[in-house]
Amino acid sequence: MIKANDPKLKSWVDVPKNSDFPIQNLPFGIFKTQYLEAGAGVAIGEYILDLTYLHENGFLFGLDLPSGIFNQQYLNDFIGLGKKKTRAVRERLSELLDINNGELQNDKANSELALIPMDEAEMLMPVKVQNYTDFYSSIEHATNVGTMFRDPENALFPNWKHLPVGYHGRASSIIPTGVDIYRPKGQTKAPDADQPSFGPTKRLDFELETAFITCKENELGEPIPIGKAEDHIFGIVLFNDWSARDIQVWEYVPLGPFLAKNFASSISPWIVTLDALEPFRVAGPKQEPKVFPYLETKGNKNFDVNLEVSLQPEGGEENVICKSNFKYMYWNINQQLAHHTVNGCNIQVGDMYGSGTISGPTPDSYGSMLELAWKGTKPIKLSDGSERKFIEDGDTVIMRGYGEKDGVRIGFGEVKTKVLPTK
Ligand code: CA
User: Fold this and answer.
1) How many CA atoms lie within 13 A of 401 on its CB side?
2) I need a surface site. Which of 104, 128, 226, 356 has the fewest CB within 10 A?
3) 357 CA to middle of ligand 1, Å?
4) Could you tell me the pTM of the whole model?
5) How remote is the CA of residue 418 from the centroid of ligand 1, in Å?
6) What 8-state DSSP symbol labels residue 271?
7) What's 111's DSSP letter?
8) From ligand 1's centre to the CA of 110, what distance in Å?
9) Which of 141, 232, 339, 340 is catalytic?
10) CB-based contacts of 414: which residues, under 8 Å, 6+ apart?
């Protein structure tokens, strides 16, 4: 058992009920304030624990950390120290925040400077994303899309249950929560039109996903065995993989998604460690037919994390439009990483791997507007009386996620993005 996960732990820092960030979470992020340059922090209640400050003032003594490791714009170097080291840092931070430990608690001068109120900070990208891959691993999502666009009888392609389907996306346009996006323009062709047309997308959509971030490379030519996959995974964020459905339909044959996907993907700013998610492990769906040995996993490799999407029209209130769960994933993160590298592909520290849209079995658990409004045939009614088939200008999309067990709630915070009119 990881000591920092003990449900009995309590912090001397105030943690409001239903906070995503109790002492058992301690997710890592990059923040800046009016006075402080970008640097690493850990979330606790409504505060950020400034890791640069703690390190420079001797509170992390004995962990043998490189100087300046937290005083950086990204966490890549820190997570690249490997899970043994980053786990030791999380354990030490847990000690320092424990109500039974006086080191920082009773040192008012230092604790006041080390704790930054979240509302005084701006959250930035936690890592410099080196490479971005997106999977397509929810069987409910793949079945819904196949049913809509192809054949309900053969909704899944023949390969789908044999391998975790994925494609290489665009790393440069991954942005943190709070960064607005512009409605993208592109080519589309209506089914009944003779010729394509050009203009703003009429079918802007979100995709409810999670993404894992890697912290350890493999050599080019050396696959990562499935039993070692989690040594390479630091943690997970919420991921909104923005999509332009009308552009996608026209462009994707034969090489797959391109401009329909690469204009923006938004993430939550706190990386929740795999360690913190340990209590939420559950078995995944039964895989039939049996997978190849390189994809076989033992034990619980899925995570019971509630996921939710809200839509907030300009000047209006939030409407929850989807409730799903990370546990529905057919292919787990170990299988995704083992498959990604089985051909010898080398991964890097700071890569991001999207799960694919996570839809559940019921219509209110579908993870995209495409599915929720069923290709525009069942518009969603909002509390202000308006309807949505897809996302409109001025709409804000908010995703949240958390696991809850033994009275402990481990949350991801939120990824919140407003859509602006086309530029
Ligand atoms: Ca996606």
Assistant:
1) 30
2) 128
3) 6
4) 0.98
5) 19
6) B
7) H
8) 44
9) 141
10) 177, 238, 268, 398, 399, 400
Please say if 340 is a catalytic residue: no
Q: Give the pLDDT confidence of 374-423 residue by residue, as tens digits.
A: 999 999 999 999 999 999 999 999 999 999 999 999 999 999 999 999 99
234, containing H or E segment = strand 233-240
Q: Judging by DSSP bridges, how do beta strands 302-303 and 281-282 pair with one another?
A: antiparallel
Which runs of consecutive H residues, i.e. helices, occur in 303-391? Answer: 333-341, 369-372
Q: In what order do the strands lie in the sheet with 396-405?
A: 181-182, 408-420, 396-405, 306-312, 319-325
Amino acid identity of residue 143, one-letter, is: T
In sequence order, the 6+-apart residues with CB closer than 8 A to the CB of 100 are: none
Omega cis (within 30) before 254? yes
SS3 9: coil
What secondary structure does DSSP assign to 27-56, as a single string? -EEEEEESSS-SEEEEEETTEEEEHHHHHH
DSSP state of 5: G
Domains delineated in the chain: 3-124 (2.30.30.230), 132-420 (3.90.850.10)
Q: Is the dihedral of CA 24, 44, 128, 421 positive or negative?
A: positive
CA distance 308 to 123: 21
Distance (Å) from CA 297 to ligand 1 centroid: 24
Do 355 and 138 form a contact (C-beta atoms < 8 A)? yes
